[in-house]
Amino acid sequence: MAIMDAQEIMDMIPNRYPICYIDYVDELTTGKSVIATKNVTINESFFRGHFPNNPVMPGVLIIETLAQAASILILKSPEFEGKTAYLGSVKNAKFRKVVRPGDVLKLHIEMVKKKENMGIVETQAIVNGKKACTAELMFVVADRDEKI
Questions:
Q1: Three-class SS of residue 25?
Q2: Is residue 70 part of a domain?
């Protein structure tokens, strides 16, 4: 059972169609971890060009999906409520498995460090129990209207 649905997620993060990739949040431990789900479907717009007759989810969009799940974890922290999390850096990204239509991405995010306006998380995108992608992401958190 989902603890956050797509509408609740869009109430928290600024992403919208066609680049809101989180379908629901499965588990959330505030300040520590989140598990979220992205159902990869053939009607995703990027599959038209990546690649015809061999649809593969682009690695950069897997990172974006992980970043969206991570921003939910960060923005659920009381001190960051109502703010926006901006991706600041990607470290040690590794792509281990191709993601295709029909796959279900389980996004596992663990908080590593949190300071006054930033957070660092370890992430894993998992398909059928196998790691598709891992990366360390750093976020800068700012007021929604603030230009950074």
A1: strand
A2: yes
pLDDT at residue 147, rounded to an integer: 73
> DSSP string spanning 84-136?
EEEEEEEEEEEE-S---TT-EEEEEEEEEEEETTEEEEEEEEEETTEEEEEEE
Q: 43: domain range? A: 6-143
Would residue 148 count as lying in a domain? no
Active-site annotation holds for 50: yes
Stated pTM of the model: 0.95
Q: 1 lies in a domain?
A: no
Give the CATH number for residue 122.
3.10.129.10
Q: Is pLDDT above 90 for 84?
A: yes
Q: What is the pLDDT of residue 144?
A: 81
Instruction: Give how many domains the chain has, as a whole number.
Output: 1
At 2, the pLDDT band (50, 70, 90 cuts) reads confident
Which candidate in 6, 20, 28, 50 is catalytic? 50
| Residue 89 within any structural domain of the chain | yes
Asked whether the bond before 51 is cis by omega within 30 degrees of 0, the reply is yes
Coil, strand or helix at 10: helix
